[in-house]
Records
---
Amino acid sequence: MKLTGGLASRIGLACAILLAVMAASLTASQVRPPALASNVATAFKSSPSAAKQNLLSVKLPDDPLWERRWWIEKTARLLRGGAGLGPDDDVDALLQLSEEEIARRFMSDPRFGDAILDFNMFFLGYKADELKIDGAYSIYAFDFANAVAASQALLQGGDYFKLFDLEGEFFMAPLRSEPLEEALAAEDAGLAPDQLRRKAVAELQAVFDDLISPASAATRSAGQELCRKLSDIVARRTELTNRVYRAFNDIEIFALIRGQVISWPFDALERAAKEGCTGRSWAQADTRRITTAAQSASGRFSRAFAEIFKFEPAVYRPQSVLDFKAVDLSAFPAKEKWLAFGFEQAISLQNSSTNFNRKRAAYILRRFFCDDLTPVGFEDPQEHIGGAHGSDTSCFACHYKLDPMGGFFRKYGAQFYDYTRSSTIIFDDLADVSRQKYEATWRARKSSSRKWNIAYVRSPRWESQNSYGETLGDLSKIIRQAPEAKRCLVKRLFEYITAENQTIDGGYLDYLTKAFEAEAAVSSSAAMKSTIVRILQSQTFHARNPDPQQCYDHGPDAKPTRGPPCRVAFILQRNCGQCHGTVYDGGANLDLGAWILAPDGRNQTFPHLDHDMQQLPAHDTLTRILDRLSSSNPKRRMPKNKIMSSQERQELYLWAQQELGRLSKGDGP
Amino acid sequence: MKTLVAALTAIYSLWLLTAPASAQTSRFKGWAAISKELSTRIAAPGESLDLERFIPAEDMEDFLGTWTTFGTEHSFQNGLPNPLSMAIWHVTLSGFAKSVGNSCATPQLAFHPRFLAILRKLCAWPAPEAQSEAVLLEFWWSVMGHNAPQREYAAWRDFFLGPSYRGRPAAETIAAMTLTITMNPYLLLHK
């Protein structure tokens, strides 16, 4: 396409201006701070020389008072759900307080509930951009029941570890107030969402009630009439269910299904039809059995919806996390505890007929144990397992943890639906299988003292290190008791407050975790608040534009030495330092506590001597470390005769791999 | 020809400046966070500023950094500045800045009374009282918050008190002031 000269030059000019603006903005965003605003402004209006003058005129030292204001602003934003300082905040008064006092003051603000819910959702892997839309909580804020329960507990000084509970209360969002995306049918035209709900529910209620009406029972041919009606209702189950669903959105239907609000009454009627009518003459129909079932179905349905209608937006509009109301689950046919996995998790953590809940297992390991399942070898198991996952080393490196964890979900099929009462289980891929056959995957061998091979596995070799269980309730208890989960919680809190990719020194993380655990033994919510304060007071949080590779905080016993990179220094110290604290150890001649210039004069490496007491190249040292970390041979695998946590082994392995990659590419330090 | 050279130069500069970007970690706070920050500072009590109307097209805010990725575990997406996101920020915040600039006569958004009071003082620009340190600092803090170090404010103030804007009309100046604050990386980025 050819453009006329004038148009082409205008477009060119427009491009130039736009690109210049972007370039200036990118400079501002990526390069160090000086006079960024003037860069942008200059790009709009001014000449380069004027910009240069401005740059020169503003080289001021950072005013400590401004820096303190910045800390307060950042803290306010963090602890008040994204709301920084506003016109109603008295900054001068805040400046008079200590950092801890400021943090605790913000923690007493009602918006702190939003901040904690936001963090809890971050911990669970489902942080949202915003919890409120136009002043009302978004439906997704209610979707993570354990996140809500833990937030409320924290605000009330209760049990914050409800975050680890995989079953508990159900916090239903206010019912839909917006019109559905699909157009309403002619019969429903003009109805508001609440009117449509009432109508749809009343229709099915009338169908159930018709079965128990005195008129039906009074006729001479009562049995015949009842069985006819019953078989008609059972045959129309799908149609009648969908007529109720037409008034609800997907997330509400998800709750109706999980709560068996509609399916339970139909199941009861189906059983009654089978037992009271099928194979009997009309005269022999068990009218009493049918009527009792119909009364029960109608009553359960009615009671469940009476509870649901308490969540109409006209009467339920929570203003804070503390206002979130739990459903009275005794009103639902499925009276068990509510599964913490909500609608979005049901969509994103699907299972299939072939994955044996491994996606769900990986989620638990990643989110609650900070185990990213990096395949780093494994220890020889005591009990050998068949199949590729058991014999192929690269597979088993993860599957020894994944498969036993998947067993906790063995009763749950598509969308985490509980199939306990059913002989078959249906998966998200819509395949179905006999439940007995499916669950046999996790049965322990006959000689075992356990019934199931279901566990949080720390070591395939040393079973005493593992935590075994059978149900999600057991898994919740395991998470609550696992030190890895508390350490993971604190690590995620640090990432949430500073930056996700900010390196944390293992010693500092240990220090924070130990303090947290000690306080949590008395009150988990107080411990959580104190840990937040500690991180807010950290050097990392005080650093403007911190280097993600650098550790700004260390454990109280840390000595400022020129040791290995902080990402792995503490891991090495804890797991390897005892045997590899000097090159004169008489074995490997490797000192994993020091970090020196490598023979190439460019890179750094551990002191590591060969048989002639000459320093080995960094490449050789790292290759050997990788080999020893991933070997499954107990004689070669390091640390020798010692259990190293899977998380730390992965971290060390990944670091060594990245270092090696960097060396191979010839990148400088 | 000059235009072409300018365009090529700008493209080269952009490439040069973004090349080390991959090594940086600064990420956008995201549209929702910025929108909330600005609302907290300058919107009427209990209200949110209707900033969405300045976004050039529906759902474009996702390109400005978002956590919301329904159906998978969430991770922050589109957080690293790139030419596209910068262009969207620029268009969006230009619209907002213009709206603030035009609010001297009639407020274009539901502003907090305190912000309106500051704005009214600034609307006297280029009168000397509008160019006082107190007025400029108050306006800076009310839009930027306390995100930026003092030298950023000094650079901004000096620029607007310099020849480019010293004598320009209020609406134009306030729009430029607002745009330069809101496009500042200390506001837009996490670090």
---
Amino acid sequence: MSGYRLPAGGRVDRDRPLAFTFDGRRFTGFQGDTLASALIASGERLVARSFKYHRPRGVYSAGAEEPNALVQLGAGARSEPNLRATQIELHDGLVAAAVNAWPGLRFDLGAANQLVAPLLAAGFYYKTFLGPRGWWRRFYEPAIRRMAGMGRAPTLPDPDLYDHMHIHADVLVVGGGPAGLAAARAAASGGARVVLAEDGPLLGAGLVDDDATVDGVPGIAWADEVAADLAGRDTVTVLRRTTVAGLYDHGYAVAVERRTDHLPPGAAPGHARQRLWHIRARRTVLAAGAHERPLVFPGNDRPGVMLAGAVRTYLRRYGVACGRRAVVFTGDDAAYATAAALADAGVAVAAVVDPRRDAPDAAALAARGIAVLPGHAVIAADGKGGVESVLVAALDGSGDGQARRIGCDLLAVSGGWSPVVHLYSQLRGRLAYDDRLACFRPAGSVAGVTVAGAADGRFDLAACLAAGHEAGLAAAVATGFPAVAAAPRTSAQPPALPPAMLWDRPPAGRGKAFVDLQNDVTTDDVALAAREGFTAIEHLKRYTTTGMGTDQGKTANVNAIGVLSGVLGRSPGETGTTTFRPPYTPVAYGALAGRFVGELFDPERVTPIHPRHVEAEAVFENVGQWKRPRFFPHPGEDLEGAVLRECRAVREGVGAMDASTLGKIEVRGPDAAAFLDRIYINPMAGLAVGACRYGVMCREDGMVFDDGVVLRLAPDRFLVTTTTGGAARVLDWFEEWLQTEWPGLRVFCTSVTEQWATVAVAGPLARAVVGALAPEMELGAADFPFMTFRDGIVAGMAARVARISFSGELAFELNVESTAGLALWDAVLAAGRRHGIVPYGTEAMHVLRAEKGYFIVGHETDGTVTPIDLGLERMVAKRKDFLGKRSLGRSDTVRTDRKQLVALLPEDPEELLPEGAQLVDDPKAPAPVPMVGHVTSSYRSAALGRSFALALVRDGRQRIGGRVFAPAGAHVVAARIADPVLFDPGGSRRDG
Amino acid sequence: MLLISCPWCGPRDETEFHCGGEAHIARPLDPPALPDAAWAGYVFMRDNPKGWMRERWMHAQGCRRWFNLVRHTVTHEIAGAYLVGAPLPPLPDECP
């Protein structure tokens, strides 16, 4: 037992006790407590085990900077790791556990790590546990990861709701302390739209720690008045329990509001648990305060060592004493108030130890019987489990030269303050080291941003209020509002003396002195890193891990910089800081995802025929955002069986496929023909009305970009089809050229993909099926030749029928208005029933086209393949320019040994080459084996009675008939190179 | 996230836009006449200044129009937008 609840005081509601469980044991706290304050009040000193050495640790701070007291909160799907006990508001039935202790917090086997600490020094994973070969991955890494754990991510789906909110403001104020309140009050006074974001549940809660008055009333009463004033203005949005996690350009800020975390799970049904606020403000006032710094000395991590400001916060805000007999060790004035507050609360203060020779206020404390030891330092904190005593010595060796031991169970430390410059620095704000205040302060300017109060290195209340007020008024005026409010007045006095740091003369006691409590980085680690050459602060961070982890070094960074600078004999300003990046504190993925989860994660596009595919129990695949039937399995049939059956039907009978997803763009205007001539590698201007032509388009670098069929509907009107996944890209491409390069062309483009439904009827019996549906239409090859289209009536519906084939078989593409798509599909299947029509999916389509050597953009092409590589030389127009044409004559594209499209026939016709497999000439060649190509598509073919593949092979066309090898798992597959057209090379089947 | 003023729609979040890189790269009028190096300069080579830059942007989730923007590549300050085909505005550091 060490900490306890004071008989009175604090902003907790003693009439509302709350039961909670920590690490399996039951406790009671009060409404208004944090988990940390309730644990301290219950006498718990040991709340965590450290990251590496599993040393016992206690609560260290009272806020977001907490490095030690990380807990796993909640259970099951709502379990959340690594939350700071100092920020968790207590509620009835709360369940939490320590994160890094096994088997338990009190008896942790990992503490044995301290015995092998020499093996775990800075950068140990580069130096130790290296051999035997293979052991790192199999043994060391899993073991180290288990030992160096933090909390565990929940494995169940998150049951809670999260929202995204968007708000525009004239002024965003970050931080609801004295500076932030003064800023918000001033900015709002003239009517500006103000957003005030405060991390905690209350505005100005820190003022309760202070005795000074503001505008004639106690600070906390002033804060309540301002809060009431702000709440009464409909131009002001006050966001409590809201952390601004990131500040970005042009006044954009992202904040997380925790709306139900302070309530028992399920207590606010229908409420989003958290809101992610997207704030766009014309001016931003950063009043995020400052974090108190630890002092670095041996044993400074023992439970019972706490930040002095936090000790005062627990006394005044929560009515909790953190110990029974305290020593205050401070290089800063602010902690003297902690000594006084402890004495006020009846806690014995054994001594105030101050390394500064001329300590302030010594007389006032001495009058209360508190000994002040100027020019002294604590050189060790000792005790089993927690602090039992400290060793204090004069810094200049005066006195009797002997260290004296003082018994205590609480050591309140203060090493000065570090302004919370995170958001400012995220926006590339420049920082400079202030020698007098021993901290990094904002030193440049960031457009639209003002830093006010402690965040700017102004640590006393009077300066915070004045700076906040001025910043708020200036922001109001800058956004066009009058300056109305008068500056708040306070009785607070500025500090007498600047703080002192001990970085260049570390106390000479024995034992580990921690620089970073969360990552278990000691002064020895920093010195070792410096000896090994890691003297740049970014290198030190990566080598020692100082400043990493969930707290990102909020208490550690400046001490690490200071100790490193001390070792190297340079100033902290020369060392500089690491870069601050968002988020300020960890953000739950749920908040980032918001409502964009499950089926709202990404839009799903379905064709008008989709319900029939679902009824037919098709297996779907995603093509872009589209759901397309991949195959239609019969009961008991697998992918391979279904695809062979579907392919056979198209080659021997008739099949039907839903081709509605193909991109369709109408290109209209007097210059449409000239425009398409510039886009496609082959001529389009001469295309006759009523005819179709296959076309390929390239980027300016000569690489194939998309392909499809162009239908000329009228002299000034074309319908362009694209790949399913490329429709949006191609429309963008058209628009880009029309708007930026050729604005003189009179052309406009309209996406009509979703206006049409398309059913492809393919196979030797296709004419019979379409004939039954369109008795008026002449379908013979002479009347309706390949690559033409007709408008007519199909199944009683207005339709456009095109003779286009992607399978090499006789095929008709039936296009109707999309609302008629379902009826068309039903009519096709009904008419085809007596011909044994088979619906086929994308997989069969892929096999059929591959048998014909037709490439698919994205399968056979990857942005490095030219039309020539695909064997399309004859398509490339000679007499016109087109996008990419000049690139086809570059030295690299005219090489004869480029990878070219070929077919591969495995020597074992049962063997399937893995798609993506690299091809080599000699599998026995010494590594690295030169690679000569890769497999782009690989299938079993019903028509060929064997497996086959398409591949890009270096100089492939010259090598037809030769052999290549592909590693396939444990063995090597040999294959013959063949012409890519394996089926019906003469093309006789397409006319039926 | 930048706040970009589309000349047609007004100020909108950057996520609504697509950046098209350096502006005013004119397509050569007679590509076949160009030596490889000159063509490569047009296709591949782009300026990457530290400072003010004229860029092309497209309001992809709005009016879908391309326009030009003068942006500072370090501070992300935006000096203004202008239409395709409009006379080139001077860069802020070129101002007299």
